Amino acid sequence: MRAFSRPVELDKLEKEIRSLEIEREAIKEEKEKQFRLDELAHELQQKKNSLEYQRKTWENMQSEREKIRILRDEIMTLEKQAEILTQSGEYSRVAEIRYSKIPEKQKELETLEKNIIFDDTVRADDVAHIVGKWTGIPV
């Protein structure tokens, strides 16, 4: 399964839209079913609008999740870089990273995390982030 699989609701709506479009085409030529054709057109438009709204919401959420993932990776990279610089004795650069760059990235991360609506689903990137923290191996 992909880390960013689409919500079931989107797939369900697309299936309903296809079904309505098939029904519309099937009764298009029948004059006595013109009322049902109008109903179908209205229902189809509602479902398409709902699908578009849900798709945009999902894409925005995915974009925000990706930004959060990138920021977490940047913070981990900076922490590793600070460790390496500590060992080589470049303390001024270590101080810059630890007291300037990392807090700046963490603040940005906190802001993004406050603004995003998280679902209750654990995804592959969530697991990878935690495993990376525990083991010290960037995933």
Short key terms for the protein model shown above:
139 residues, mainly alpha, Rossmann fold
Number of domains: 1
Mean residue pLDDT: 85
How far apart the termini lie comes to 18 Å
The total beta strand count reads 0
Alpha plus pi helix count: 4
**Given this structure, which CATH class is correct?**
Alpha Beta
Strand count, sense and closure of the main sheet?
A: none
Report the principal-axis shape: rod-shaped
Question: What gyration radius follows from the Cα positions, in whole Å?
Answer: 25 Å
Low-confidence stretches: none
> Would you identify the CATH H-level superfamily?
P-loop containing nucleotide triphosphate hydrolases
* Helix/strand class: mainly alpha
Helical percentage: over 70%
Structure description:
This protein has 139 residues and is mostly helical. The protein has one domain (8-135): Rossmann fold, CATH 3.40.50. Helices cover 81% and strands 0% of the residues. The two termini are 18 Å apart.
